[in-house]
Backbone:
């Protein structure tokens, strides 16, 4: 086997003589050359080094008070800066590929199963931002709810299916973290593998019970194989990477805090410190997104998914916009599961102008279109250069503007002028839903 036993304990000694001494059990394999290096090289910071060996941090009141032991390993300022920056999407992909190549290269079954367990640990750390100790303590039967969004067999469940979750337990509290569909699927496949189950003495309950020192060493090796600084494969770097990614995607800081299980938003904010160059790029990206949003905001509803009505092939999705309008769309059932479409998910609904129909008058017309709204014409753009088509822009009561392309003859016949009451409509199959 490639991993040491995780259950055996040895007596921890007092590393330093100070005003107070510290003792606790250590897992076998935890006393590494790194500890000796720290003890020799960081005399003035011996309290922090002791905390790192005990699995805590500089402040004794919680695991988030400072960076983990990985941040100060030999490698100088470059390694520390790398951990503070975290990994970008390309680096995460390279690291994952290094793990998968390593698993596939195993010659013995015992090695393959051990490496597969380490791959699963990596996927959980990357997807949840959990601490390494939290992942290693997971009991799959108790702490992993891997039921697909559609139900146990993937069939529809009335649109009320919930996303797979991992439950992390600490201090009598339970923190639920949603799992991406691909990670949940890989975990389901692993738990259904009889070879993996039979290889564990205590069954699946100890699937993730591996020695922390061994896990870290294997992670560092994969980083080197991927051409990355080894510090970037540390659990704390993966945790920081997820936090920074979520904040960059405009996830509110308190939500990120709860996801990571941190005691305050200030600790979460410390994960998201940026250099001057990074801050400049972030602001530039934001301004570009705003410019695109303002120039293409027509024919767009932003809101929350409020209902999912599944079918054998396609599902009907209802979005309620910020202005209170209901927008109905139809997507494939496969897209519902892949995108995690469920009530409460934020989304935008886009409709192309040629798909929008305009009916003159204040009275609602008889129509088979699923989406129909009263509006007022704000602009009619007809060009003598193009005698065939005209653009009509109508405004809903909440200020949302819908542009429609109609024939110039239709615009004249319906007497579409500024201020005229109209109804705008479009079919459910004409709506494009966007997430993230």
Residues:
């Amino acid at each position: 086997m490639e991993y040491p036993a995780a259950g055996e304990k040895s007596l921890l000694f007092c590393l330093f003589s100070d005003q107070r001494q510290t003792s606790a059990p250590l897992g076998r394999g935890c006393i590494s050359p790194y500890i000796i290096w720290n003890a020799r090289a960081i005399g003035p910071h011996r309290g922090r080094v002791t905390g790192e060996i005990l699995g805590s941090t500089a402040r004794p009141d919680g695991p988030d008070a400072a960076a983990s032991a990985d941040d100060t390993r030999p490698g100088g300022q470059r390694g520390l800066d790398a951990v503070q920056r975290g990994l970008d999407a390309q680096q995460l992909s390279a690291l994952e590929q290094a793990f998968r190549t390593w698993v596939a290269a195993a010659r013995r079954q015992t090695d393959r199963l051990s490496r597969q367990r380490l791959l699963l640990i990596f996927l959980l750390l990357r997807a949840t931002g959990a601490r390494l100790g939290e992942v290693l303590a997971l009991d799959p039967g108790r702490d992993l709810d891997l039921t697909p969004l559609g139900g146990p067999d993937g069939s529809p469940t009335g649109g009320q299916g919930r996303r797979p979750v991992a439950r992390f337990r600490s201090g009598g509290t339970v923190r639920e973290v949603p799992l991406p569909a691909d990670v949940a699927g890989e975990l389901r496949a692993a738990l259904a593998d009889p070879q993996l189950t039979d290889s564990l003495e205590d069954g699946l309950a100890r699937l993730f019970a591996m020695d922390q020192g061994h896990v870290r060493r294997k992670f560092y090796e994969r980083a080197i194989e991927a051409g990355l600084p080894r510090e970037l494969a540390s659990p704390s770097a993966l945790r920081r990477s997820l936090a920074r990614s979520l904040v960059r995607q405009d996830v509110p800081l308190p939500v990120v805090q709860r996801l990571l299980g941190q005691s305050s938003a200030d600790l979460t904010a410390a994960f998201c410190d940026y250099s001057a160059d990074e801050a400049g790029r972030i602001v530039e990206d934001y301004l570009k997104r705003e410019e695109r949003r303002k120039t293409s905001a027509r024919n767009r509803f932003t809101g929350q998914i409020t209902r999912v009505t599944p079918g054998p092939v396609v599902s009907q999705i209802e979005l309620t916009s910020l202005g209170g309008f209901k927008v109905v769309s139809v997507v494939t059932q496969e897209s519902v599961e892949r995108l995690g479409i469920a009530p409460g998910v934020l989304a935008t609904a886009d409709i192309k102008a040629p798909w929008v129909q305009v009916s003159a008058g204040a009275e609602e017309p008889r129509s088979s279109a699923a989406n129909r709204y009263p509006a007022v014409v704000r602009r009619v753009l007809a060009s003598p250069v193009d005698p065939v088509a005209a653009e009509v822009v109508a405004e809903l009561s909440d200020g949302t503007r819908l542009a429609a392309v109609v024939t110039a003859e239709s615009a004249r016949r319906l007497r579409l002028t500024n201020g005229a009451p109209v109804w705008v409509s479009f079919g459910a199959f004409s709506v494009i839903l966007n997430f993230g």
The radius of gyration is 28 Å. The first strand starts at residue 9 and ends at 11.
